Amino acid sequence: MIRILRSLLFLLPILSIAQLKSPSEFLGYELGSQFTRHHQVVDYYEYLVQAAPDRMQLMEYGKTNERRPLLLAYISTAQNIKNIERIRLEHLKNTQGEGASDKAIVWLSYNVHGNESVSTEASMQTIYNLLTDKSDYLENTIVLIDPCINPDGRDRYVNWYNQYKNNPNTVDPNSKEHHEGWWSGRSNHYMFDLNRDWAWLTQVESKQRLVQFNKWLPHVHVDFHEQGVDSPYYFAPAAEPYHEVVTDFQRAFQETIGRNHAKYFDKNGWFYFTKESFDLLYPSYGDTYPTYNGGIGMTYEQGGSGRAGLGIITSLGDTLTLKDRIAHHHTTGLSTVEVASNNVAKLNNEFKKFYQNNNFKYNNYVLNGNQDKLDALANLLKQHEIEFGHAANTTYKGYNYSTGKIGAMKATTNSLVVSTNQTKGTLVKVLFEPKAKLSDSVTYDITAWSLPYAYGLDAIATESSIQKNPLSNVSKNFGIATPDSYAYITDWNAVNDAKFLAELLKKKIRVRYSHKPFTLDGIKHKRGSLIITKADNKNNPNFSEILHDTSVKFSKPLTPTNTGFVESGKDFGSRYVSVVPNVKVAVLAGEPTSTLRFGEIWHFFEQQLNYPLSVLDESYFSRVDLSEYDVLILPDGWGYRSFFKKNITEKITDWVKAGGRLIAMGGAINALANNDSFDIKEKETPKDTTINLQAFENTQRERIKTAITGAIFKATVDPTHPLAYGYGNSYFTLKLGNSAFNYLEGGSAVYLSQNANTPVSGFAGSEAQKKIAETLIFGTENMGRGQIVYMVDNPLFRGFWENGKLFFANAIFMVN
Questions:
Q1: CATH, range 2-354
Q2: What SS3 class is residue 449?
Q3: I need a surface site. Which of 30, 140, 286, 442 has the fewest CB within 10 A?
Q4: What is the pTM of this model?
């Protein structure tokens, strides 16, 4: 009897495994024969956790903008799941040099780009096999699976494909089902690329995911992607440049994993490549960010993407199917877990070493500046669980970000200090370093991103140790101390001030701003200062209450005054004190524009300014009555030359002449520069007719002489120009290309001067540097009663270039 009982107990796990339904069995169709909608994916994961609750946990860690759930599955053996919290805490002890973990932590992330749709399909097959025939990998391993990082984008693609595919689907690449269109499923709701947002955390998906990521800090993280239809599979090891903080072990283990993948791909006769295209430098990817947190971060790329559908003919005449794509991602996913399971001790030892080797050149970064900008940076650091404190009221010496030289900076008790001597010290070094060291100038993304430049803060990188003071709340006078005051004054020098202004305008509070500096009651106020008078709002019975509540909401101190008679400058009734117009704003969408650049504007208005924005698609733009709008924004894009037909050009110029304000960005400026109706002109550079004979294999490196791969330049600012209110005499701009335009007479608000064409950080080719010398960054042109604002560089790039956002707000509210 005892023997029979033991046999039954032995059979229970086998019976449980046998009873689990595969994805195909559960969904009712063969996996890969059609695309699975997100709610069906959620259903399958919920089914698995109900069927195998001892070996799996499932949590909803957040929701998307379109209210779809974000899921994270934990799978391992029953014993490991029972002790999962103890395992997690023991693993995190490694970051303090104290852990004795005997488990590997592997995190697999799928479908960060929505129309790279094979990922989520592969995740279902992968988790099924880990719970069944590959469960032996889990004896010493915890696997975390995020089946879909970007549900909004994925469902956008899947729904589109189901609408337009042939029945049965066709593999003809010319058919509609292989041409997704402008509003693609790649990005999230706000058209942001979530694979560029790991460090900047501008999107709700990224913010919610990072909370869970920081709870685990996995040994291995894989980001599953797709690339062009004709590309073979890509897996680690990555290409150069590697950031200098990447350890020898991290490099070597990428090779270990890659060789294991190759074993399976070779067996099946599948093509693949390694060490090309995808580098480890820019910190905001799903491979680099985990790497800078001690893990082995990797990107896997399958050929396909939105063009592939259920099947497509490649340029070689082969047929690439969704089932093929699933098989490849499924193989590398299981192979990754296998390698981790076979190297648990090594992963734990090296993970512990990573957090003990913070021997960097700069020990501390000291930051001065506007309190709103300091607060914005502090908020980002908190989300990353990076420790910081306040400086002492003294002078610090080191690398001065403003001058690019060794110098000194006087700090105050409000200055921030961020040290590399902490758990996240490596991440601090990567995010704050003045210049990232490049082992190769051919890179996949931008080469400069240093946070002091991005946030517009004065900074010193110092080699000395600094005693940080605890954080304390800065005392501000938010309230209305004297309700009967003539007016209330507040400053204008950060994007938070624009949020404050936008809120007042929406609540029908009239606001003025000064075009000249002025002194009142012994207090000096700069250009752009906001002035809210009682007389302007005498018909609003809730004026005092609205102003008080809004100042508290945005932490905006108000300075009351009992007079509009200034001691120096211009009185409040002067023509140099203008009313901020409650402008009605529209933005162009559709084929002429980049989805990403459009998305940055859309997100800025709805999630930062919280100010109304109308979206006008180019398909019906010719029928829109522009007189209903005060401001029209043309985002960067590549289709403007065909967009600006004669009737459209006349429509827009007539509207501007009648008092409209056109904001042209990036590629839109290129189109305007070739039109005689506009003053903006491309800079002419002498053509070199010399034929430079060289080896064919060197042509790519020769081309980068004309390229700028996301480098930072120090630009000159005219602070008297309304487009530059709130700024000082200089601005660090992030240039993403070599577009170059001449100065505008009387309208050049921000520009590169004669000797400012060398980047302070990042790579710019020698020919590109010559081209951009003495060119415009931001400027304005008057046309009739209206204006055109030109933004050559992108002040809203990926939502993280914080110091550029006030320029954009000025273009909306101050240029008048």
A1: 3.40.630.10
A2: coil
A3: 30
A4: 0.94
